[in-house]
Structure formats: structure tokens, C-alpha cells
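Q: I'm building a small set of examples for a reading group on sequence design. Run inverse folding on the following structure and report the sequence directly after it, with nothing in between.
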């Protein structure tokens, strides 16, 4: 087994889990995680780590600040330290370089790119080799990619006899569905999601298997769960593709229109967001949260009167809607 110890630091719980799960998938079992830089520094007092991967932007103490603290300690001058961020400007690259960063990783993480990045990280840092489990997984994946489903299935099932793994269950599900065995595939995908509640690909594949069986409602539920996870991990394009796929199944799905509204507002496209929210409102005209979301979009578009109208309607439908009341008060005070 690999004795290399990693410390991953990120205040985004989805991104944190995704990175740590990928390390474990690659056979690195001694992986520790925390969501604050100050806690990460405290962890160094009780344990030695061979490599650190930290988000740059975090409240209270940034990843860059953690890097500087470690580099000021003679014990950690040469410790492999990687910073992750959604956008590295020229100024950030220069600042990180001056602080002694080992490398930079762009978020959101793409799984295949992340695997390559970790492999490069490990090689550059001279860290230990992957475990026997990782070697078996790589063997199974090569067989799967070559279309040798039976031999790949044998490798994955043998791995399960030595310990359960969400990724292995997912690969078994993939093989089963490729062979048209959708119910068996669903069972494997379900086990994968039970082991990893944020495994978006498994929910996505399960939804498509349900679709092949004509079980539309279950397909919609699984696909929507995948879309929610993608949205939380800032993989908006993946989320959008799945949400549109759900609309092909169920054109009157209010949650999908609402989610698309959230996506487009986040992208800075309030006009398109408004269209989706209004479609959701046609289906459920008495849903207070939809009125609230429409009100927020009108604020973005500088339509204060229309925003007030929807905030008032949200409060009429739900008198205890705190956020709607605060937004309405802010408008009346001229703060919005």
C-alpha cells in the first residue's frame, strides 16, 4: 500500500470531496481533508504530510497565506504545495510563484485532467507508487476501454471481493447497461451512490438506465440529482445538458425550469433566467420561492417595481418568508 500522505484544503465541500475521492481512486489511501487553512496549519502540528493541495480563495485565511506560513518554516521549505482556483490571472501566477508554489490547478476539476495532474504532481514530488488496488483498477479500465467487457467485469468483481468502491460499482453498472442489462446496471449505480452521495456520473447513468426501461419519473429524479451536484461543483455546462435532457422527458417539470433560472442568473444572463422562472411560475403560480427568484432577477435588471410586486406576492403566499421581506425592505429603503 502507498504510504504517501496528502492534505487537501478547500471550503467548497463538493470540490473537496471530489479531489480526495480522486486521490483515493488512484490508490492514495492516506488522504486528509479540511475546509479551512487555519485548521490545516493546526494539523501540521500533529502529523507530517508529503503534499498539500489548497484552494486559493477561502474565508479568514487564504491558501496563499497558508503557503507563505509553511514556507517560513524551515521544515516545509521544499514541501510540494499546489494551489487551486477557478481563474489564475498573470498577477496571481506571479504572486504564487514568489511565495514558492509547486504548481497550479484550475477549478472546476475535470476528472480525467485531474488524474493526469495528480500523476504529474506525484512524479514531480517523487512520491510513492499507487497501491495494488489502483493497479487492478487501471487494468480493468484498459479492458473496459478496449471493449473487453467480460474480462473487465471479472477484474471489477474481484476487486469488490476485497472491498467496496463507488468507482468500481460505477464501472460494473456501465458494463451492465452497455450489455442492455439495465436493471442490474441500476443496482450497481445505486450502490455507487450509497457509497458516494456526490457521485454525479453514477446518478446520471442511473437516470439514463431508468429512461431505457421507460421509468420516466425515476429517470427524472436521478438526472435532477446529478444536475444539482454538477451545479454545486460549478460544472454548469454538465448541469445544463442534463436539465435540458429532463425537459425532453417531462416538459412540465417545475424544478428544472427553476434550476435553469439559477444557472442563467449565475452566468449573468438575467433575461434568459427570467424566461425559465416564468415557465416555472406558469406550472406553479402559487410557489413563493419562484416569485422570490423572479424578484431577484428583476433587481438584476433594475426593474424595482416588478421586483417589489413579486416579493410582495411571495410574502402573501408565505408570510414567514424572511428573505423576501428583507429584499422588499431593502428596496423601500433604496438599498437595492
Amino acid at each position: 500500500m502507498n504510504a504517501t500522505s496528502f492534505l487537501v484544503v478547500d471550503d467548497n465541500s463538493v470540490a473537496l470531496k471530489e479531489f480526495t475521492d480522486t486521490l483515493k481512486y488512484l490508490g492514495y489511501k492516506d488522504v486528509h481533508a479540511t475546509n479551512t487553512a487555519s485548521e490545516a496549519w493546526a494539523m501540521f502540528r500533529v502529523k507530517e504530510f508529503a503534499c498539500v493541495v489548497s484552494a486559493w480563495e477561502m474565508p479568514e485565511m487564504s491558501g496563499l497565506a497558508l503557503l507563505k506560513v509553511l514556507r517560513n518554516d524551515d521544515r516545509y521549505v521544499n514541501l510540494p504545495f499546489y494551489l487551486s482556483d477557478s481563474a489564475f490571472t498573470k498577477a496571481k501566477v506571479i504572486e504564487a510563484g514568489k511565495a514558492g508554489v509547486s504548481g497550479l490547478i484550475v477549478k472546476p476539476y475535470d476528472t480525467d485532467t485531474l488524474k493526469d495532474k495528480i500523476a504529474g504532481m506525484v512524479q514531480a514530488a517523487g512520491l510513492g507508487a499507487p497501491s495494488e488496488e489502483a493497479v487492478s483498477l487501471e487494468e480493468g479500465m484498459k479492458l473496459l476501454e478496449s471493449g473487453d467487457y467480460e474480462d473487465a467485469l471479472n477484474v471489477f468483481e474481484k476487486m469488490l471481493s476485497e472491498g467496496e468502491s463507488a468507482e468500481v460499482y460505477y464501472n460494473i453498472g456501465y458494463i451492465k447497461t452497455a450489455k442492455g442489462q439495465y436493471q442490474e446496471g441500476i443496482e450497481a449505480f445505486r450502490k455507487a451512490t450509497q457509497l458516494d452521495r456526490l457521485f454525479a456520473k453514477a446518478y446520471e447513468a442511473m437516470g439514463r438506465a431508468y429512461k431505457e426501461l421507460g421509468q420516466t419519473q425515476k429517470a427524472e429524479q436521478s438526472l435532477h440529482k446529478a444536475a444539482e451536484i454538477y451545479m454545486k461543483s460549478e460544472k454548469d455546462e454538465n448541469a445544463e445538458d442534463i436539465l435540458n435532457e429532463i425537459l425532453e422527458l417531462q416538459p412540465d417539470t417545475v424544478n428544472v425550469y427553476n434550476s435553469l433560472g439559477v444557472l442563467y442568473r449565475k452566468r449573468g444572463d438575467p433575461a434568459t433566467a427570467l424566461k425559465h422562472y416564468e415557465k416555472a411560475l406558469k406550472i406553479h403560480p402559487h410557489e413563493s420561492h419562484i416569485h422570490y427568484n423572479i424578484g431577484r432577477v428583476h433587481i438584476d435588471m433594475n426593474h424595482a417595481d416588478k421586483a417589489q410586486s413579486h416579493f410582495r406576492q411571495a410574502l402573501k403566499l408565505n408570510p414567514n418568508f424572511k428573505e423576501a421581506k428583507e429584499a422588499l425592505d431593502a428596496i423601500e429603503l433604496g438599498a437595492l
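The longest helix spans residues 216-232.
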